[in-house]
Structures are given as structure tokens and as C-alpha cells.
Amino acid sequence: MKDTSKKTTAKVGPLKGIRALDKPRSMGDVAYDFLKQAIVKGDIPPGQRLIENQLSVQMEVSRVPVREAVKKLEQEGLVEKTGGRGFVVKGLTREEIEETLGIRALLESYAAYLATEHINDSIVKKLEDSIKAYRTAFENKGSTDKLMQLNTQFHEIIYKAAGSGKLYSLISSFRDAIHRYRRPLLECEHYAKVSLRDHEEMVKAMRRKDKKKVEELVRKHILRGMDIIIKEFDAGKTV
Known about the structure:
The chain has ten helices and three strands. It has 239 residues and is mainly alpha-helical. The chain folds into two domains: 27-89, Winged helix-like DNA-binding domain superfamily/Winged helix DNA-binding domain (Arc Repressor Mutant, subunit A), CATH 1.10.10.10; 94-234, Up-down Bundle (Four Helix Bundle (Hemerythrin (Met), subunit A)), CATH 1.20.120. A three-stranded antiparallel sheet has the order 1-3-2. A hairpin with a 5-residue loop joins β2 and β3.
């Protein structure tokens, strides 16, 4: 007897939970990320020579990926060629400091304004927890790296609370430059303490939903930091 029943065929389509696999990263890319973060964090300071052979030995890779990494860093303006064949970490100019921190003041003060419009108990708690952790680290003489991490965390909460993807992307494009400024600022004990006070005042104004006040506080907070960095620069310190 002939089987006349219909056979069901499973539909072919994207399977849930399956995505494209990450492509293996080249050692040049890994070396580039490692060196870039070391420069941005200030572990490799401005003026430091980058010697290919030395980096190759310390990073336990061949000289080829190191050469590729340094070339990319040069293209980004983080290092520059010396008179010889080597490279040095490039310092910032006065104009770059004023331009970058001036733009940051505009973007972040607006982000704080928007965040205040969306403020709620959950966001306030995150900000207060971040401040509490920063205060503990500061009072216990925590490392500059720890203070930088907590300072960044506080500002990140505000960026995200603003609820603007475009604004977040713009601020993120300045992320590396911002990190380069935070270290010299937070290495100054007085500024590290003032930064804590500023953050507390910002949250108080947010609780009151005083958008204009928050915007003003954030702008002054960043421009105060810019003034300190410029004074350091004018005094001959490489930034």
C-alpha cells in the first residue's frame, strides 16, 4: 500500500544561540592593544623611547608584531619617530589639551543634563555606591589606578543614564584621551579630594532634579581639571 501521508520538512533558517565565530587576532593586534593601553594609562610615559628589540623580549613575541603595533600607534599620533630609527611616546600639546578637555566639558555636561531628566533611585544608588568606593580607596591611600577606575565608573554611569546612543558614542571616541588626563590629575592628592567633593555635589543636584545646576557642576569640574593640566604643562611637565 502506497504511503500518501505528507512528510514535514524542517525549515532551514538561523539557529538560536549561534553566531559568527570570532576571528583569531593577529599578534600584531594583540601587541598594539597592549602597548596602547600602557600609553593611555600612563605606564609608558611621554618621552619614553620604544626599542623594538626590548619590547620583543619583554612581550615574548617576535619583532614583526611589535613593528606592526608601533606603526599603528604612530598612525594614531601616540608615538613619533626620533631623529634615529626609533620611536618615542608623544606628549600632548597645549592646544590638544585645551581642545580635548573643552569638547569633553561640553559633551559630558550635556550628558549630565540629560541623565538628570531620567534620574531614578536605581541610578542614584549606583552613583552613591561608586562615590562610597572612591572615598574608601582615597582614605585608604589606594593606588592611582584604583582611583582612575572608580572615577571612570562614576562618569560612565552618567553617560549611560543620559539615554542617548549618539552622545555616548561621541564621548567614547574621546575615551583614550580622557584616560591620559586622569592619571596626572588623580596623582595630585588635592585634586583627587576635590573630585570626590564635586561628585557628591553632582549627585545632590541630581536628586533635586536640578538639570542646569548639574550641567554647570560637571562643566566646572572638567574645566578645573583642564586648568591644572595646563599649569603642569606650562611648568615644563610633559603630559
